[in-house]
Amino acid sequence: MSKQKKSPFPGSIYVRNNKLYLKIRGKRLSTGLEDTPAGRKTANELLETYYRQDHNMAVLRPSKKLVYEVYQEFLDTHCLKLQHKTVVGYTTAFRAIVRSNFALNLDNISQAVRNFCATTSVNRTSQNNYLRHFSKFLTFCASRTYLPETDICKEYSHKVPPKMVQIFKDDEIEALVKYFEQRTPDPDPEFALLIQFAVETGWRIGEILTLKWTNVTDEAVHRISKDKRSLQAFPMTKNLASILAKCTRSGEKVFRWQDTSRSSLLRRLNAAMDELGIEKKNRAWHTFRKTARKRWMDMRLPMEYVKRLMGHSDIRVTEKHYTVVYTSEMREMLDQKSHQEGGKQ
Q: What strands lie across the sheet with 3-5, from one edge to the other?
């Protein structure tokens, strides 16, 4: 009696007289393999190969590579033009999940992910971040046909409610700008302009610090895209033109600080918030980007416009932020409405 074996690919594996057969699109094919664990594994690989050939997909080539070797290849090719912060995120995740230099195959990768999830001490949000970063490496491996495509990282991710979005309020921004413009005995009007530029454009701090005057025109300011492969135009608004008109053209860059100055700039911002009595609330330079996004949403700009202003490659990312922002805003409006209704009773 033949016995059907389950396969992750369309088609079936059958056993007859202790031999394995494939059934694909009504055709029966003999593998010549014995019904053993090793035979079934090879039969599954054959089934995948036929499936890929039938769909004009790349056929997986058996890899004898070690995982550290392939990760170095990932760094040297895929990560070559990415931001340093992004690459650090990939490497941190890789080191947390991959504990030894094992042979690169799906079984070993799956075991590494399971071991990480079973033993890690990080919280669920951090665990999800590690898995999300590690999945980029797995996607790279699949593109090179070193591994089949896998959802192992999604399978072990936790459902974590999104955090409420923190922004800077208008009066806080005004106070910070005024503080740096009029600070005694050491005013720093350029730092005030840096804050205003961040709020007006919603750019990441790294994008602002690397902006050159050659990328500023009468119509737009052009930032280098996140993947370093293109320039993205941001419209030259009246506010932005006014900010740039106050910047000193003393060098090729718009702002004097180097990209490596982020930590010192954040310390200076934190010190100003402390002195002004502005609560920190985990807010940092990236919060100015979220503040700009919230302003554009309040203007009811079309989502496609917000996507372009933010420099998002996928509108789903923009919509995700939109949902989180307005969940917080709706809660505040409902609380305010309930308070008003309660006062009338």
A: 3-5, 12-16, 19-24, 27-34
| Distance from C-alpha of 47 to C-alpha of 199, rounded to nearest angstrom | 55
Judge whether 231 lies within some domain.
yes
Place of tokens 């053993």: 36
Structural domains of the chain, count: 3
User: Which token pair is 335?
Assistant: 């609380």
Biggest CA-to-CA distance, the chain: 92
- Do 96 and 44 fall within a single domain? no
With residues binned 3-state (H G I as helix, E B as strand, rest as coil), the percentages for the chain, rounded to 5, are 55, 10, 35
Residue 322 has a pLDDT of: 62
Consecutive 10-residue averages of pLDDT for the chain (345 residues): 50 83 76 80 74 55 80 92 87 96 91 94 92 95 86 88 81 97 92 98 94 96 83 95 95 94 95 95 92 89 91 81 64 74 63
d(Cα 46, Cα 85) in Å, to the nearest integer? 41
Q: Is 342 inside a domain boundary?
A: no
Q: Is residue 142 part of a domain?
A: yes
Task: Report if residue 20 sits inside a domain.
Answer: yes
User: Which residues lie below 8 Å from residue 303, measured CB to CB, with a gap of 6+?
Assistant: 315, 318, 319, 322
Rounded to whole angstroms, how far apart are CA atoms 116 and 98? 8
Give SS3 for 233: strand
| Spatial separation of the C-alpha atoms in residues 214 and 279, rounded to whole Å | 38
Same domain, 145 and 203: no
Tokens read off for 298: 């309040």
Retrieve residue 168's tokens: 């800077």
Give the span between the Cα atoms of 287 and 165, in whole angstroms: 9
Residues 76 and 194 in one domain: no
| Domain match, 41 and 71 both | no
- Which pTM does this prediction carry? 0.62
CATH of residue 227:
1.10.443.10
Q: What is the distance between the alpha carbons of residues 208 and 244, in angstroms, rounded to a whole number?
A: 12
The whole domain housing 105 covers 67-155
